[in-house]
Write a structure and sequence with these properties.
The complex is a heterotrimer of chains A (360), B (179) and C (494). With 360 residues, chain A is an all-alpha fold. Chain A has 16 helices and two strands. Chain B contains six helices and four strands; from the N terminus they run ααααβαββαβ.
Chain lengths: 360, 179, 494
């Protein structure tokens, strides 16, 4: 070990932070919501969660080994756990195990390590994994089930759940239902106006608490919000992306709902359904794939909000958060290029400020 | 049909004539790249690159049949500038980075023959016949021409010492690419 | 007084409590003093003593080596034993020509010290500036810029305010705090003299609010003077940065590549003000300074007044030595200080602290890949994008880093401090700034040489042309003569 005093420049003191601490704080913020989700969707969800996170960790270890790195530090930084975690909660809770594995391989190996590993990826690995399985396996990826809280009536037992997750030729057709966003969309396609079908959709309270069919992370707005606020309090994330994202989504929803309530669902509905809160606080705020400047983050958040609303309203898919995040990810380098902070003593164009004050 | 072919033919001939004339009239006599490259070189005609002078090296560079790392007085900065102009990788790693040098005359050996003074292209040596010669270090760019002609081996090439004013931090050891 | 917000910055752990209540103690005269000939920004001074000379305290031993330079004085009476190279208190570990003095123990002042200026406010500002220059005073906050040059700014700028920087925003350091508490009258007097020399009607003394005792002491000392305001400024690193302090006090942002003087403000450090007081009122040149010796490895953290030229090893020994091997020994504060190559380096004018930092204190960890968290962008007090600049520099794209403003970086260290990946961002920027200015110097040197070569070639060509012309003329003359003679012959033959 070198004992040279002067082999590096100042500073010689450091904030008590490192990558692992940051990542594990994010996991801690996610934990309450996820535990609630796992309870709500029972054993199959727990199995899928474990399989997905495990597959992501395995992919990470293999990729890091192949590129000659140390696997300990790869897992130690915690970033792959976040990827696996977010990926798992964005899948239908009763999806078969291989959905999680395929998504993990594409998310971690392709979206992250093919780009150079931690910090180098352009696209959010969890969302790449989710989108790949969504477009490849639409049947499994839209087989939502209504929440059946663990140990409650209707919740499958341990062994029965093993069958759901690991069994062959399992069909959820009999029990699957549409998610609220999907329901509104299909009803509209059948010619039933939004304001009418809304009456048959889950109520506002159920939507907020998550008692409706959907992926795990879509449930429980209050716990996700609490986790997000905790991250803000810890200064891991700032308000810029979540507020601009949710704000845009709400404003677009509310505005168009005012214009034509039969065609457009309300701003509030957009906020509390789908992955709006999870996306705003945990997915869009992914450090690596979002802009670094505050101005850039607002642009990024507005972009995701807008794209999510457009996809939900006009495109074939009922939920658009994953697509919107990926599209804006691809713009992040350009946003970073154009929305820089103003340097001290310079105009926003980079020219020195004019001298004033000396002649007072 | 005839009209179509005819009009197209007329247009073609006319435009061809215009282009041909323009090429003649606006022709640039020398290769502009060559001049630009020469501007990047130190211009001391020291010949350390193996060519007679900077313009010959520039010509060879423009043709692309010589490495860009031959200019010793220019150092790393010149290599990078040439690489940028030519749009090639600045493979300065191959180039053994020589610390900048200057000539120094050993007083006890100089016989005042004036040969080095005549050789020096940047007037960095002062001296008169049968008088001790001296190098003006600030004007010397280390081409070593004087070193080669000195009959008494009174000239040595020294590395320009790093002073505290010129010292700066080196590039930090880069963090591992993969964790 | 209304204060203005300053963007960015951090709140490091200050650790000032170890020395804040330690009154300044005086170091006994060491066995030898080492005075380097370059203790300031600018040209080196020139030694005017040689081995064997006897010197008296305050005697000039090296004269100023240029417009931006400073003289050096013997810190005590004694014998010059050598003028030789000694390792400088600098991260490079390079040596500097150094005058080594063996004290005779009498500590006698020279007889020919300049006379005290009885009424400096009646004196011409040039008299004050000359006295400050003759006293070898440089900025004592760390930058070590010759103070007389900075006092000259009043001749080219219309100045409103002299800002005395007592922010002392660096962690650990308490020497300015102690000087303000114990020598408030001297600091105020020095500040008034400097304001007079600058032609600035107002004096503002900015002190971070974590030094209430210093604010009180300075307020008391300044009470008699209506043009002096003592202001508590927010505790926010880097508040002591000249431009940021000016912004906090005046709300004005110094334009890039301009001086605070262009806004009518000149900033001087509190220790500098005290040195000016001594030079003007007592005729004493700068031969001593107060240094904070602290850090987890130091047995007895203290504020010590030391003769310049004291070996750091002697100073550390006076403070009880190290209780454990330090990971870093730092000249200055932990945020912007210079790591010292060893303890065998002398104390110089700009040295405000000697820190022996333990591994726990430095918090060093191996660098990890950047996760683009953007914290460095949020806290950069200069509004730069450290993450992008470091990326460019890592890939040797220094020109791109320059386009993103790396030369505007003041190396305050905030970005490195907060980086969760422990990337040595400021080290990257120091490297880039150094390499860019070295390349610039080299380019200018080559341009000069190119000019010389062109002149040389033109001259040679001219000479050759002249020679050719002369030869041609001679040939022509010869031919003419020959022809003339032939004609004559023909004539004769005819």
């Amino acid at each position: 070990m070198t004992t040279a005093y002067n082999d590096r420049a100042a500073p010689f003191t450091h904030a008590p932070v490192n990558v692992s601490k940051t990542m594990f704080t994010v996991l801690a913020a996610l934990a309450p919501a996820t535990l609630f989700n796992l309870w709500m969707f029972g054993w199959p969800a727990i199995f899928l969660f474990l399989v997905t996170v495990g597959a992501c960790v395995a992919c990470e270890v293999i990729c890091v080994r192949l590129s000659g790195g140390s696997a300990d530090s790869a897992i130690g930084d915690g970033s792959v756990l976040i990827t696996g975690w977010l990926l798992a909660v964005s899948l239908p809770p009763w999806a078969p195990w291989w959905i999680g594995v395929v998504a993990a391989v594409f998310g971690v190996a392709l979206a992250k390590h093919a780009f150079g590993g931690l910090g180098q990826n352009v696209f959010n690995p969890a969302m790449v994994g989710r989108v790949v399985v969504l477009v490849s396996f639409p049947v499994q990826m839209t087989a939502w089930v209504a929440p059946k809280p663990l140990f409650g009536a209707g919740s499958p037992g341990f062994l029965e759940s093993l069958h759901y997750t690991f069994g062959r030729d399992v069909s959820l057709d009999a029990i699957s239902q549409a998610s609220p966003l999907g329901f509104i969309k299909t009803e509209l396609a059948r010619g039933i106006a939004v304001d009418q079908s809304m009456a048959n959709a889950p109520g506002l309270m159920d939507l907020i608490l998550g008692f409706h069919p959907g992926s795990m992370g879509e449930a429980s707005v209050p716990l996700v919000l609490a986790g997000g606020l905790y991250l803000m309090w810890k200064r891991i994330i700032s308000w810029h992306i979540p507020v601009s994202l949710l704000g845009t989504l709400f404003v677009m929803g509310a505005l168009f709902n005012l214009v034509d309530p039969a065609r457009f669902s309300s701003g509030l509905f957009h906020l509390v359904t789908g992955a709006s809160f999870l996306g705003a606080f945990f997915i869009a705020t992914d450090y690596v794939t979002s802009p670094v400047s505050k101005k850039g983050q607002i642009v990024f958040g507005v972009g995701i909000g807008l794209l999510t609303w457009i996809i939900r309203t006009f495109a074939g898919y009922p939920e658009g958060m994953a697509f919107a995040v990926l599209l804006m990810n691809s713009l992040t380098p350009i946003i970073d290029q154009h929305f820089r902070p103003r340097a001290f003593g310079r105009t926003s164009k980079g020219e020195p400020l004019p001298v004033k004050g000396g002649e007072q | 049909m005839l009209l179509d072919v005819g009009s197209l033919a007329v247009m073609g001939v006319t435009l061809g004539a215009v282009l041909g004339t323009a090429a003649k009239l606006l022709a640039v006599p020398t290769n502009p790249l060559e001049d630009e490259l020469q501007a990047l070189l130190p211009g001391s005609q020291c010949g350390q690159c193996g060519f007679v002078g900077c313009s010959q090296y520039a010509a060879a560079l423009a043709k692309g049949d010589t490495p860009i790392t031959l200019c010793a007085p220019g150092g790393k900065g010149t290599i990078e500038a040439l690489a940028k102009k030519l749009g090639v990788e600045a493979n300065a790693d191959d180039h053994e980075e020589q610390a900048p040098q200057h000539a120094h005359i050993k007083e006890d050996l100089c016989i005042g023959c004036l040969r080095c003074v005549q050789e020096c292209t940047s007037d960095a040596i002062v001296g008169a016949n049968k008088q001790l010669h001296t190098i003006i270090v600030d004007q010397c760019h280390g081409c070593a021409k004087c070193f080669k002609v000195c009959p008494t081996e009174a000239i040595e090439m020294c590395t320009v010492p790093v002073t505290m004013a010129a010292w700066h931090w080196g590039k930090p050891q880069s963090e591992p690419a993969h964790h | 007084m209304k204060l203005f917000p300053v963007r960015g910055g951090i709140h490091p752990e200050y650790r000032k409590e170890r020395t804040a209540e330690q009154a300044i103690v005086t170091l006994p005269m060491p066995a030898a003093l080492y005075i380097p000939l370059q203790q300031h920004i600018g040209a080196a001074s020139e030694a005017i003593v040689a081995a064997g000379d006897s010197v008296k305290k305050g005697q000039v031993i090296a004269k100023s080596g240029g417009v931006v330079s400073a003289a050096a004085h013997a810190p005590t009476s004694g014998l010059v034993v050598a003028v030789t190279e000694v390792t400088a208190p600098h991260a490079s570990g390079l040596p500097l020509i150094t005058i080594i003095i063996e004290p005779d123990g009498k500590d006698e002042w020279a007889d020919d010290l300049p006379a005290p200026i009885a009424d400096p406010f009646a004196a011409d500002s040039k008299v004050i500036r000359d006295r400050v220059a003759a006293s070898g005073i440089v900025g004592m906050g760390g930058a070590a810029f010759p103070s007389a040059v900075k006092l000259n700014l009043g001749t080219q700028h219309k100045l409103q305010t002299l800002l005395i920087n007592g922010a002392e925003c660096e962690p650990y350091l308490t020497c300015d705090d102690r000087v303000m508490r114990e020598f408030a009258d001297e600091v105020i007097d020095g500040a008034r003299i400097m304001a007079h020399a600058l032609g600035a009607p107002n004096i503002v003394i900015g002190i971070e609010t974590n030094k209430p005792a210093a604010i009180e002491a300075m307020g008391k000392a300044a009470a008699a003077h209506t043009n002096i305001t003592v202001v508590g400024v927010p505790v926010q690193y880097p508040m002591g940065s000249e431009r940021h302090l000016v912004q906090a006090i005046t709300g004005l942002e110094t334009p890039a590549r301009k001086l605070t003087a262009d806004l009518g403000v000149v900033v001087h450090n509190v220790a500098t003000a005290r040195a000016v007081h001594k030079a003007v009122r007592l005729g004493q040149p700068l031969v001593r300074r107060v240094i904070t010796v602290s850090g987890g490895a130091v047995a007895r953290p203290s504020n010590v007044e030391v003769p310049l030229g004291t070996m750091v090893a002697d100073l550390v020994a006076f403070c009880g030595g190290f209780t454990q091997p330090p990971r870093r020994v730092v000249n200055g504060g932990p945020m912007m200080g210079q790591p010292l190559p060893s303890l065998e380096v002398p104390v110089v004018k700009g040295m405000s602290g000697i820190l022996g930092l333990t591994t726990e204190e430095t918090g060093e960890e191996p660098a990890k890949p950047c996760i683009r968290c953007g914290t460095c962008v949020t806290i950069c007090p200069c509004g730069l994008v450290p993450v992008e600049m470091a990326r460019f520099i890592k890939h040797d794209r220094l020109d791109d880093a320059a386009k993103w403003g790396v030369t505007d970086c003041v190396s305050c260290g905030s970005c490195s401090y907060v980086c969760p990946s422990h990337i040595p961002l400021v080290h990257y920027f120091n490297y880039a700034k150094g390499a860019l200015s070295a390349a610039d110097r080299e380019r200018r040197r080559l341009d000069t040489i190119k000019g010389l070569v062109e002149n040389h070639n033109a001259r040679i060509e001219k000479q050759q042309a002249a020679k050719k012309a002369a030869a041609a003329a001679a040939a022509a003359a010869k031919a003419q003569a020959a022809q003339a003679s032939t004609t004559d012959d023909d004539k004769a033959n005819a």
